[in-house]
Amino acid sequence: MIEFLSEDSVTVFQDPTKNWEITRRTTQIRKDPLTGIRTRILDYPVHMPPPPDMTELAEQTAQTCPFCRPRVMEVTPKYLPEVSPEGRFTRGESVLFPNIFPYDENSAVAVFSNQHYVRMWELTADYLMDGFLTAGDYARALSRAYPGTKRYFSLNWNYMPVAGASIIHPHYQIVAGHEPTNYHDTLLQASAQFYKTHQVSYWPSLVAVEKEKGERYLGRRGKVDWLIAYAPRGLIEVVGVAEDAAQVEELAPERWRDLAEGLQTVFGYFAEKGFPGFNLTLFSGMEEDREHYRLQVRVVPRTLLSALGTNEVNYFKMLHEECLTMIRPEEAAVELKKAFE
Q: What domain of life does the native source organism fall in (predicted)?
């Protein structure tokens, strides 16, 4: 029912680094078992430079950061009263407000706390919780203000400039429009097709298969299962799948806590490996997706491949829509699984 397909492509050449010996290198091409999206796993040694020290830049940018208090309450937009009578959504130090440069009709930015520079190992579950709960508040407010409106809701986070962040202060962005993004659409449609074909949801089936195989399954936090994707869309792709929720509006605080605790473990591993950033997206379904879909969070680490500042995204990703990695998912899972124990 779930197939893990791959094909090896072997290149043969005379190697100048080995006195012109005949050498073989294998590129493995994998297909995601749900979507069919390809990933190439390269036989390519990587020695990443140490992560950059952001301390000096953080001190400089804190002077004008629009997300530090009290500035965040003075320079950021406010919602119309029907969405938020107070104009913004707040919990503890977290604050969520309209994106002044929106990506869609419902486009928000949320700041986790007043701490401007937060190192990856400081991204604990306690640190994340208020910011995540604020996302749930916003999703439910949209449902109340605009009932019956179709919204494809995603929570998205670029952590640090290497991952595309233009501001160091930790923050995420919400996109909730009537059209999904390409990959969001692919996830939902492929999940629906799998259910139509097999009469079971792909996601609990995947968790069960990965548990049994034991190669990429990492562990469980509460009612969220964590695994490494078979065909990752980055160097590594860590996936957290909610057992009992399809859409963000229904996430109770304890389920947000399960997600946050799993992410704390993942971020700790990324920090230990020296990754300087990551991209994260939480993909929500809608009410009609309940039978076939499970809400999930996906995280990929970002890095630099050389002192030149070269990152790991090149023409394969940008123009061919295929991903490259030099890290075998099963090898990463062996290490990360220990952190989940």
A: Bacteria
Q: What is the pLDDT of residues 61-115, one digit of tens each?
A: 999 999 999 999 999 999 999 999 999 999 999 999 999 999 999 999 999 999 9
Do 37 and 20 touch, CB atoms closer than 8 A?
no
- List CB contacts of 19: < 8 A, sequence separation 6 or more: none
Question: Residue 211 — φ and ψ, nearest 5°?
Answer: -60, -45
- Please answer whether residues 289 and 176 qualify as being in contact, where contact means their C-beta atoms are separated by less than 8 angstroms: no
Q: Are 130 and 94 in contact (CB under 8 A)?
A: yes
φ/ψ (deg, to 5) at 39? -135, 140
Domain containing residue 166: 55-305+332-340
- Asked if 110 and 172 touch (Cβ cutoff 8 Å), the reply is yes
- Tell me how many domains the chain contains: 1
Q: Name the token pair of 1.
A: 């029912």
Q: What CATH number has the domain bearing residue 118?
A: 3.30.428.10
Q: At residue 156, what are phi and psi to the nearest 5 degrees?
A: -135, 140
Segment 154-186, tens digit of pLDDT = 999 999 999 999 999 999 999 999 999 999 999
Residue 175 lies in a domain: yes
Nearest 5 degrees, angle CA 290-CA 291-CA 296? 55
